[in-house]
Each structure stands twice: as structure tokens, then as C-alpha cells.
Amino acid sequence: MKLLDTCVWIEIILGSPLGVQFNRLLSDKQNVLISSVVQFELRRWALREYGAARANNIVLALREGVVVQTGERVAFLAADLARAHKLHALDALIYATALEHDAELVTCDAHFKDLPQVDYTAKIK
């Protein structure tokens, strides 16, 4: 299982060279986890960039993967991870969701670079 971070979805949506690389992960949508926190972040970004109609379409497309909600166990784990790795709250919730579901977090966010169960790819400049 793979949990795609918000930055990965943004790269895919933008069609960037990195997004083209990440797009291959969508061929097996049943092995792609979608965190409800990623849904929040992606909708917020899409509203700012494109407006409500396109933001709705983007978030609807995310439902093709396996959507997982943030519950109490993930929240408590995220608090511990935030403290241990100096992560922001939403990053910690996304990472905790991946760990809770024994998934690999796929990201291009350097905050996760050396953490276990993370597939980090640096952004192309």
C-alpha cells in the first residue's frame, strides 16, 4: 500500500515532470490510500488555485483510491510523531495514517526525507 502525500497529488495535477513519474502509482488504485487530511489539504489548494467547481472534481477523483479517516489512534500517534520528528500537525497526521495502515508514504516534502516507511523524491528544479 502507498499513501500519496498532498504534494504528490499536486505534482500529478500540474502535470510536472515529477508528477508524470508519480502518475504510474495510480495504475493500481486499490493499493493507493487517501488520507482524509490529504483530501482537506488538496481541496484547500485547489480552491485557491482553481475555484470551487474544479476543486470538487479533483477531490471526487481521489475517491477512486481507498479513503481512510483520521481516528483517535492516528491522532495520538501523530502527536507522538510530531514531537519526535518535529513535524507540523497535518504532516504528522498524514504520516501517522500511513504507519497505522502499514503503508509507505510517497512524498516530495523534505520534512519526511529520512523517516521510516517513506519514499521521498526531491522536487525537480
Instruction: Give the biggest beta sheet.
Output: 5 strands, parallel
- CATH architecture title: 3-Layer(aba) Sandwich
Helices and strands, in order, run as: EHHEHHEHHEE
Spatial extent as radius of gyration: 14 Å
> Total number of helical segments?
6
What portion of residues belong to β-strands? 5-15%
Structural class: alpha/beta
Describe the fold and architecture.
The chain has 125 residues and is of the alpha/beta class. The protein is 54% helix and 14% strand. The chain has six helices and five strands, in the order E-H-H-E-H-H-E-H-H-E-E. Helix 5 packs across helix 6. The longest helix is centred in the middle third of the chain and has 15 residues, at 36-50. The N and C termini lie far apart (28 Å). The model has no long low-confidence stretch (mean pLDDT 94).
Question: What is the secondary structure topology, with strand pairs?
Answer:
Elements: E1 2-4, H1 6-14, H2 17-23, E2 32-35, H3 36-50, H4 52-62, E3 66-68, H5 72-85, H6 89-100, E4 104-107, E5 118-120
Parallel strand pairs: 1-2, 1-4, 2-3, 4-5
